[in-house]
Write a sequence for this structure.
């Protein structure tokens, strides 16, 4: 199961503690949280207000930078969509539905690749050892301690992007079955980013972002190749192979990063190790509640992945199962077209009687589209 350098009760700093399993995590976290709850006899609204005033540190300049960068992300996406992504979709002769969805996936792929690369640099190519030693995120924690510049930059990038994403999900992205959950996810993520920065839990925040962004890269990469495999009125094997490889990689890493490493590294550190390093750590239940909610949403989306895998095993079309279905007839015709690209070619050579019966139209990906000779 692997191991990480942990700080156990009674152990000296630097001693190695085996990485816990799920049973150990649940048992130790539940006992620790229950003990913390029973010991908190003075907990309440008044204490929360005072704790917030005493331990939350964020300046007006940082708030102004957050809103400015969130606005900047929105304008940058609109600019790239009009200048690059839409012309690229037209140049590739994508199907109308794919051309409409392509800019969203391309934008997210660009951002998450950049943000995950930066998080990877911080965790593996700098002096930080948070990934290999999760409990170290709380070593030497002090209220109002300075945030290292490189981590502060990561927080500004990620926080402002999720501020932009709340707006983008409602007003810019295609609406899907899980869009409402996505909005809640962005709100929770933004709350975690803002409060973890203000309370100086920035070390654990970098680890959380690293464990989540990689799946977004694979998701958008897979979707782009799905859009590209039926472009220009033909079938492209390379993009089909890449989409299948991306789907498999996405499914595996979702479980490994979000359902294995995230609870066993992050939740164990925040639920158990945090109280060992800082016995009176502020807003203990608030932050762990948000992280548990994030875990529940990861499990919720994993159900979509299971449905997706079942569809692949049944040899159905690889597609985003979160999308709303088109009419049955259109969906069936689209599946037939993608399974056999010759359908499109043969359709162009049909006789006049057949063309009259179909009114010179055919269905592609659930959209009735005029045929062009």
């Amino acid at each position: 199961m692997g191991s990480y350098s942990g700080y156990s009760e009674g152990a000296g700093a630097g001693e190695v503690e085996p990485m816990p399993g799920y049973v150990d995590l649940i048992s130790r976290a539940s006992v620790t949280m229950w003990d913390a709850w029973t010991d908190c006899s003075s907990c309440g609204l008044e204490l929360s207000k005072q704790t917030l005033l005493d331990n939350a540190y964020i300046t007006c300049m940082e708030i102004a930078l957050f809103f400015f960068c969130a606005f900047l992300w929105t304008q940058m996406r609109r600019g790239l969509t009009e200048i690059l992504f839409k012309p690229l979709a037209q140049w590739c002769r994508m199907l109308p539905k794919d051309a409409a969805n392509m800019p969203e996936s391309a934008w997210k792929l660009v951002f998450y690749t950049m943000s995950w690369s930066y998080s990877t640099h911080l965790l593996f190519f700098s002096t930080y050892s948070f990934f290999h030693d999760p409990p170290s995120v709380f070593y030497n924690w002090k209220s109002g301690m300075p945030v290292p510049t490189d981590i502060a930059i990561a927080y500004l990038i990620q926080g402002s992007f999720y501020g932009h994403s709340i707006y983008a999900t409602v007003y810019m992205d295609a609406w899907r079955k899980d869009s409402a959950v996505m909005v809640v996810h962005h709100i929770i993520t933004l709350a975690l980013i803002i409060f973890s920065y203000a309370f100086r839990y920035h070390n654990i925040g970098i680890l959380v972002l690293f464990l989540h962004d990689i799946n977004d890269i694979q998701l958008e990469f897979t979707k782009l190749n799905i859009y590209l495999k039926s472009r220009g009125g033909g079938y492209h094997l390379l993009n089909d192979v890449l989409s299948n490889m991306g789907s498999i990689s996405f499914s595996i890493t979702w479980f490994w990063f979000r359902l294995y490493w995230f609870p066993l590294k992050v939740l164990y550190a925040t639920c158990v190790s945090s109280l060992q390093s800082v016995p009176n750590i502020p807003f203990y239940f608030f932050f762990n509640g948000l992280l548990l909610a994030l875990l529940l949403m990861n499990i919720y989306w994993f159900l979509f992945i299971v449905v997706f895998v079942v569809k692949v095993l049944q040899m159905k079309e690889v597609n985003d199962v979160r999308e709303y279905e088109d009419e049955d007839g259109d969906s069936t015709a689209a599946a037939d077209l993608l399974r056999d690209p010759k359908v499109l070619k043969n359709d162009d050579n049909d006789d006049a009687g057949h063309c009259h019966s179909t009114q010179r139209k055919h269905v592609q990906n659930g959209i009735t589209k005029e045929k062009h000779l």
Q: What stands out?
A: The radius of gyration is 24 Å. The first strand starts at residue 3 and ends at 4.
